[in-house]
Amino acid sequence: MEIEKEDIKQDITIGSVDNKNINYNSMKNSQKEDLSLTFLAIIIVIVLFISFIILNTLDKKDEIGLEKISDKNEIQLIDTEKLNNEKVDQDLALEKIVETEEAQFDSEKITSTIENYINQNLMNGVGTIIVKEKAIEEHGLYKIKIDSGSGQLLDIYMTKDEKLLFPQALNIQDTKEKRIGNEVIYPNNQNENSVENNKPKVELFVMSHCPYGTQIEKGILPVIDALGDKIDFEIKFCDYAMHGETEVNEQLNQYCIQREENEKFINYLKCFLEAGESNNCLTKTNINTTKLNSCVSTTDTEFKITANFADKSTYKGSFPTFNIHKDENVKYKVQGSPALVINGEQVSSTRDPKSLLATICTYFENAPAECNIELPSVSAAPGFGFNREGNATEASCG
């Protein structure tokens, strides 16, 4: 029994020792866990601290970047303001220049200068012009708009030095004649009114006693001789007459000669342009006066030529109407003598034979050999007679 008791004691003792060992191990393990948690916490704190520093650094960089962008925008705004200020200064300078030029331009004075010159030197004692629009500046020139008494308005130009005056400006972009060296090149004319069969229709509107009408007639006669029946040519008349009853009667004669004996008309015209002696030329060219008188009577009645001459209520301004070709005058916007119409459009040309030939030849699809004929390049003098040379004027009656 005692042995058993000893054994029990030993067992109890051993059990106590084991329990102590167990408690020690438990404590040891608990300490290890505490150290691990502490270390983990420290690492987390360090990571958070580093993250904070990084984020703070990025925020500062963003702020610096935004400040730089803002500074650049401010600089750009300043530059834009400078440019705007410079433009304003330039605009003000231009305005001052314009104001100075306008101050120097005296519309009343320029208008009076042009008006007086025309009335004293160009109207030949037949009425006076009526200024419809006072002088303005246009394309580096002075321009006024007048009515010469016909009811149709004309533009008159003068150079700014007040030395040159001319009643018509030619638009060089409309020039049909082109040159390579001294050779004239005739392009195909694409005008929608071009006649068929390659035969240009040439209509010359004049007043029979207008000195500038007779000037271009003398210039075109050599062209008619050169081209012959390769063109369809006709003299027509403005719808008013500025040179009295003599002109009215002559235009009736010329209209009827073309109508009744057209083959004799050019010879009659050549004779008439020598000295304006109608009766002598009728005899010289063997015109059938019976046919002529009958046609004149019929035409006079149809178009009321004599009646309108007597009735001043029918006048265009100060001048009697002459309505034989009135519709064509309106259609082609004829404003005076002369007016050259080719294939339904009014064209400009200087009045020497060479220039008139070149102008007409541009209206052929295929220019004939006659277009290369050498004709005089000098204009005849205005008025009657072939023995004097004139200037390349653009003056007109109307």
Number of H/I helices? 10
What is the beta-strand fraction? 5-15%
Low-confidence stretches: 173-196
End-to-end CA span: 170 Å
Query: What is the level 1 CATH name of the largest domain?
Result: Alpha Beta
How many strand units? 10
Kindly identify the CATH topology of the largest domain.
Glutaredoxin
Describe the structure.
This protein has 398 residues and is an alpha+beta fold. It has three domains: 104 residues; 60 residues; 195 residues, Glutaredoxin. It is 52% helix and 12% strand. Helix 3 links the parallel strand 7 and strand 8. About 6% of the residues have low confidence.
Brief descriptors of the model:
single chain; 398 residues; alpha+beta; Glutaredoxin; 10 helices; elongated
How would you summarize what this structure contains?
The protein is of the alpha+beta class and 398 residues long.
Give a topology summary.
Layout: H1 2-104, H2 107-121, E1 130-138, E2 141-147, E3 153-158, E4 165-166, E5 178-180, E6 183-185, E7 201-206, H3 211-227, E8 232-237, H4 244-260, H5 265-275, H6 278-284, H7 289-303, H8 305-310, H9 326-332, E9 339-342, E10 345-347, H10 353-361
Parallel strand pairs: 7-8
Antiparallel strand pairs: 1-2, 2-3, 3-4, 5-6, 7-9, 9-10
